[in-house]
Amino acid sequence: MSLERLNPAGLSPATGFTHAVTATGGRLVLLAGQTALDEAGAVVGDTLPAQFETALGNLLTALAAAGGGPADLARVTVYATDVADYRAHVAELGLIWRRLAGRDYPAMAVIGVVRLWDEQALVELDGIAVLP
Questions:
Q1: Cβ–Cβ under 8 Å, residues 121 and 43
Q2: For 45-98, what is each residue's pLDDT tens digit?
Q3: CB atoms within 10 A of CB 99
Q4: Is 34 in contact with 62 (CB distance < 8 Å)?
Q5: pTM to 2 decimals?
Q6: Buried (b) or exposed (e) across 23-35, using 16+ Cβ within 10 A?
Q7: Among residues 122, 124, 113, which one has the least CA distance to residue 59?
Q8: CB-based contacts of 75: which residues, under 8 Å, 6+ apart?
């Protein structure tokens, strides 16, 4: 299995994401949306960065259960209830991402949403990974 990350000339610089990811061979893992829920099912964290860290950790825990790791992520979608707040914290969110997932960035999108399933949730992440 291999993932190839492509950032072609002519597109804006890819900072914290990859423009295109190709996957060859392997097993596809579809990861459900993860918010900042703890083991008891309660949303933890009052700030977007705190919730992002928990949600990303939850996504990576689900991926690990399937036998994968952060470098296997081909696509991640971030759903944020306040895109302006997300943009205001982008440097901190980048530090959290690199600490938990490293620098092999998947193709990503940030989508603004009115609300998430849990009303206290500020952010949700889902993803697609390709495992050997």
A1: yes
A2: 999 999 999 999 999 999 999 999 999 999 999 999 999 999 999 999 999 999
A3: 10
A4: yes
A5: 0.90
A6: beebeebebebbb
A7: 124
A8: 21, 106, 107, 108, 127, 128
